Amino acid sequence: MKRVVLAYSGGLDTSIILKWIKDTYDAEVIAYTADVGQGEEVEEARLKALDTGAVEAVAEDLTEEFVTDYVFPALRANAIYEGYYLLGTSLARPVISKGLVRVAEEMGADAIAHGATGKGNDQIRFELSAYALKPDIQVIAPWREWDFKGRADLIAYAEQHGIDVPVTPEAPYSTDANLLHVSYEGGVLEDPWAAPPAGMFRMTTDPEDAPDEAQIVTVAFEQGTPVAIDGVRLEPVALLTRANELAGAHGVGRVDLVENRFIGMKSRGVYETPGGTLLYHAHRAVESITLDREVQHLRDELVPRYAEMVYNGFWFSPEREALQAFMDDVQVRVNGEARIKLYKGAATVDGRRSDGHALYDQATVTFEADDVYDQADAGGFIRLQALRLRILAEKRLGEGE
What we know:
- By secondary structure, this protein is an alpha/beta fold.
- The chain folds into 3 domains: 3-172, 3-Layer(aba) Sandwich (Rossmann fold); 182-353, Alpha-Beta Complex (Argininosuccinate synthetase, chain A, domain 2), CATH 3.90.1260.10; 362-398.
- The chain is 42% helix and 19% strand.
- A 5-stranded parallel β-sheet has the order 3-2-1-4-5, sandwiched between helices. A 5-stranded antiparallel β-sheet has the order 10-9-8-13-14. Strands 6-7-12-11 form a 4-stranded antiparallel β-sheet, with no helix packed on it.
- The model has no long low-confidence stretch (mean pLDDT 93).
């Protein structure tokens, strides 16, 4: 291998990996930093890569692609893993992998490399995505190759070679940020009984310090995709950014869970997904009045499967793509608005409406007099539903059960 494109964040692992690949493979390293919403960290990483020895450093803005082609499709599917996780990291990895492969082809590289550990999910997400896009790609995964045993060894190596890293032995938990969320893991967070350190969160106000007055936010959807907040139409990146600002100010979107990694172990992760949480609740609210019951129930049965595919790294798989087509077809009728109340860490539905697509019929459900429903019909419906139960009960009673 003579040229390697490294997914480079500027953090501890990838900074050391850049140096390690150069020395181990005697190869040129091209640092690739995908901007999926990290902000100023992107340019800082690009400059640091050059200082650390990269022959070239590419920083690419993928925010529009990330939100439009990954975040919003997952939102239309109501993707949530194990009841809590809105898949912020899982959704970012395939778009980064796509960029890695593209740059490798453009620059004539022999391989790509990443800084994911041999214990985590990201190694699987990066590599499954890369192989799906370029079957003959070579992948370097240093955590599965080198002799370093843990973060302490990396910090010592960085000090030995004069590599500046933003992590110290005293506060070694790691973070991963994008426009959808920030994740925190490792260090003191490895103890599932330990509370997250004070001041750790970056996107959300502590709910105890959030405003004492609730804020009402209205989100509009067209075919399941959010298009406006409080009556103002916004492009995808601007909309998610605005949702993050509104929900984050009220401490919405913090999650602390022990999840089941694809590789077979349990892991404690802490996440904050303010805008995603707001949009998730608003989306379900609009769905509640626009989707047919059986269609909604069938879709909900498939949500865990879809979320598991994304979590496990199968974004570019035929099964995810097929299921996405179903999810998107279901969303054709999901047009309307939801009103969400933000208060002290909670996002609760305050109202929902849909002009022309609502299946909710007030004339049918009213407790007042109506001309569209004969309540006596319910008696026959119940007797038919009870038929098999009555037959079974008679048999059991006859047998002395």
